[in-house]
Amino acid sequence: MTNARFYSLLGVFTAIAALVALACHLLLPLDYALPLTVGTILLFTVFCAGLFWVAKRTVAAENKYLFTNVFMGVTMLKLFMCGGLIAAYIFLGNPENKLFVVPFFLSYLVYTSLEIFFLIRLAGLTGGSAEEA
To answer: Could you tell me how far CA 84 lies from the centroid of its own chain?
Structure first.
């Protein structure tokens, strides 16, 4: 997968996440959670770009288990990061209700589907260049 293809997909998925978040904020009483939603989308965007960079570097490594190890480590990091972010927002932000998790988890699903797509494409590369997929 080329860098241009990835960044175009990242732009499309970010637009989808923004539209889903906008729909959530229009339909649900979530005015207080707008900074969390925008911050979450930006965080996931940066996280996906970093994951693509790391995955692209590890897929061509001689150690055939490096890509899998990096994928598992990054997945665990993302889960802890999301859990910590939600817990911190609950304890520090003292939200009016628990509906703020709706746009958060919908954004999580959008970016996770992007990660699955490009990681499967990159994992399909065995001995060739990471640009081929």
So the answer is: 15
- What does the alpha-carbon distance between residue 55 and residue 12 come to, in Å, rounded to a whole number? 20
Closest CA to 71 of 63, 84, 83, 59: 59
State the Cα–Cα distance between residues 26 and 52, nearest whole angstrom: 32
Phi (first) and psi of residue 124, to 5 degrees:
-70, -15
Domain limits, the chain: 3-123
- The number of residues in the chain equals 133
Locus of tokens 């061509």: 60
Q: How far apart are CA 132 and CA 2, in angstroms?
A: 7
- Note the pLDDT tens digit of each residue in 76-129: 999 999 999 999 999 998 898 999 999 999 999 999 999 999 998 988 865 555
Q: Which of 38, 1, 19, 2 is nearest to 133 (CA)?
A: 1
User: What are residue 96's phi and psi, to 5 degrees?
Assistant: -65, -40
The yes-or-no verdict on residue 132 having pLDDT over 60 is: no
